[in-house]
TrEMBL record:
The lineage of its organism: Eukaryota, Sar, Stramenopiles, Ochrophyta, Bacillariophyta. It is found in: Membrane. This is Peroxisomal membrane protein MPV17. GO terms for cellular component: peroxisomal membrane. The keyword Transmembrane helix applies. Keywords: Membrane, Transmembrane, Transmembrane helix. Residues 1-24 are annotated as: Disordered.
Length: 215
């Protein structure tokens, strides 16, 4: 009797026992399955996440090295350089992971039979130009992100978007409900998107003319 009460207490309201929490072995098995099924995409996602984590941790630890600001003499708050984090993540996921994937695939099939020779080929022939490529890409990505962030802040993108969105939403209520009603009422479901795309031509013309007049 006591065992039955204990079992009932571990069941959810639907009468079924709750699913056990995923175990590390189960997660590893699932990850191995993803590597087998989607090798490139899995490696890209892994490299993106690991590069982001490593850069964030390094940035945070670097901010702890200097206890005081050299100019103001005040304690500095620990911070993370998010531009640096995204730069490493983008490089790791979109550039380094695909190159490494195809390079190691080629090396395993066509490279020297000796593991020692494979290591020497990788480290002496391939890694030096990859290091140059990495720092070049990081500089380009950093510059692009900094320019985009600076332009975003200086242009007041969010405030302008909110300011323009209010009248646009009101205007859309005089147009899109009729388009949607007509599509739902008169057309088959497979044509709904086509109908909305055609109607968006009129809406885009309106928004474009409205933006030109305001400028």
């Amino acid at each position: 009797m006591g065992d039955e009460a204990t079992n009932d207490s571990h069941r959810d309201k639907s009468g079924e026992a709750p699913l056990p929490a995923p175990q590390p072995v189960s997660l590893l098995t699932r990850y191995n399955g993803m590597l087998d099924k989607y090798p490139l995409r899995t490696k890209m996602a892994t490299s993106f996440a690991v590069s982001a984590f490593g850069s964030a941790l390094g940035s945070y630890l670097s901010s702890l090295d200097g206890k005081k600001s050299p100019n103001q003499g005040r304690p500095r708050q620990p911070r993370i350089d998010w531009i640096e984090v995204f730069s490493y993540a983008i490089h790791g996921g979109l550039i380094n992971a695909p190159i490494s994937h195809y390079w190691f695939e080629w090396l395993s099939e066509h490279g020297p039979g000796s593991d020692t020779k494979s290591v020497l080929v990788d480290q002496l022939v391939v890694q030096p130009p990859l290091a140059v490529l990495m720092f070049t890409c990081l500089d380009v990505i950093r510059a692009s992100l900094k320019a985009a962030t600076s332009q975003f802040l200086e242009a007041g993108v969010v405030s302008k978007a909110i300011q323009n969105a209010a009248p646009a939403v009101v205007a859309s209520w005089r147009f899109w409900p009729f388009v949607l009603y007509f599509s739902f009422k008169k057309l088959k479901r497979k044509y709904w998107t086509v109908s909305l795309n055609l109607a968006s031509v009129i809406w885009t013309v309106y928004l474009s003319r409205r933006g030109s007049i305001e400028e």
